[in-house]
Amino acid sequence: MARNTEQDPDYPQLTAREHARIAWNVGRMVKRSIGRPDARHTDLERKVDRIIDGARKRAEKSQ
């Protein structure tokens, strides 16, 4: 199976802190799913979206 190494052009460059925060929130989503398969993740998904939106704003500002 071929691996896609190209980055999505709409996806911003993330700092190490942003990567860590996203990984932390994804880990929390997994933990919730293990504990309760029907658990809601909307709050954590919104947090990840906010982190990515902040990275996009930072990238636009630096250009």
Explained architecture:
It is a single chain. The chain is an all-alpha fold and 63 residues long. The chain is built from 2 helices and no strands. The chain has one domain. α1 packs antiparallel against α2 (42-62). It starts with 15 loop residues before the first helix and ends with a helix.
Short description:
By secondary structure, the chain is an all-alpha fold.
Which SSEs are present, and which pair or pack?
Elements: H1 16-35, H2 42-62
Helix pairs in contact: 1-2
Task: Briefly note the structural class of the backbone.
Answer: mainly alpha
Poorly predicted runs? none
What profile does the largest beta sheet have?
Answer: none
Question: Would you list the SSEs in sequence order as H and E?
Answer: HH
Distance between the termini: 36 Å
SS summary, helix count: 2
Q: What is the rounded Rg?
A: 14 Å
Mean pLDDT: 89
Number of domains: 1
Give me the count of strands. Answer: 0
Proportion of residues in helical segments: 55-70%
Strand residues, percent = under 5%
Overall 3D geometry? globular
